[in-house]
């Protein structure tokens, strides 16, 4: 299935590109967090005393991060690793597409690369889910329809990846099922069916042979009007 596999490789590369773009933006967003005053090298007081009009208790945990503190460093390292991973998958799938564009047939190795990439993208999407929670506001703040743009972006890309991986898994399962050897029950059914089919074919062939022989005997009698042959045919039919 060259065409189908090429389509899935392109789909996987597109999903990896979406993840990489979003995670790159998230890295930049984290760099914009206000610095922790306790970790500042200078002693000048920060001019950003109120980074949000909302009280801290009304803000999601992600909005309370301060650049340089332990929670910020942990999240920054995690997002940076996810970004690097997504970019690596994008390049890996891109090399497969480049091979296919050069009139080279995709092999089982190409299928394995695509399958592995989809599984890893599913893992990236799973990690996005936990990051979403850091930017999810309480339902009492702005109503249930209001959520920060970063959370909406994470949810959208995660949904795209999960839907793509689900469709790929269904296609992969169907493809591998076609290559599986038949089970014992299937083999038994095939054996019985083949035996019955062969028996019926033999019966049909025997009937056809009898009809042909009968017709061969009837033709001379009809052509010459031989009463003895006609009488023999009538006796056989009787």
Automatic annotation (TrEMBL):
Biased composition regions of type Acidic residues, renumbered to the chain: 229-238
Stretches the record annotates as Disordered: 218-238
Signal sequence range: 1-37
Keywords of the record: Signal
Domain of life: Eukaryota
Compositional bias ranges of the Basic and acidic residues kind: 218-227
Name of the protein described by the UniProt record: Midasin homolog
Source species of the chain: Nothobranchius korthausae
Lineage: Eukaryota, Metazoa, Chordata, Craniata, Vertebrata
């Amino acid at each position: 299935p060259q065409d189908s596999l090429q389509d899935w490789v392109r789909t996987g590369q597109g999903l990896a590109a979406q993840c990489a773009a979003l995670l790159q933006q998230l890295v930049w967003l984290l760099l914009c967090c206000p610095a922790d005053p306790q970790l500042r090298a200078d002693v000048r007081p920060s001019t950003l005393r109120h980074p949000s009009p909302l009280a801290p208790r009304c803000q999601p945990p992600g909005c309370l991060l301060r650049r340089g503190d332990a929670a910020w460093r942990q999240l920054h390292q995690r997002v940076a690793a996810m970004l690097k991973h997504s970019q690596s998958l994008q390049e890996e799938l891109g090399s497969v597409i480049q091979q296919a564009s050069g009139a080279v047939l995709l092999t089982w190795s190409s299928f394995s690369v695509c399958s592995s990439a989809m599984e890893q993208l599913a893992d990236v999407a799973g990690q996005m889910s936990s990051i979403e929670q850091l930017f999810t506001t309480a339902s009492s703040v702005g109503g249930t329809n209001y959520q920060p743009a970063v959370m909406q972006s994470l949810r959208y890309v995660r949904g795209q990846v999960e839907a793509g991986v689900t469709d790929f898994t269904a296609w992969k399962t169907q493809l591998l099922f076609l290559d599986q050897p038949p089970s014992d029950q299937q083999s038994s059914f095939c054996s019985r069916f083949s035996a019955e089919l062969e028996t019926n074919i033999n019966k049909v062939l025997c009937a056809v042979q009898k009809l042909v022989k009968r017709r061969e005997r009837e033709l001379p009698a009809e052509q010459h009007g031989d009463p003895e042959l006609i009488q023999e045919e009538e006796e056989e039919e009787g």
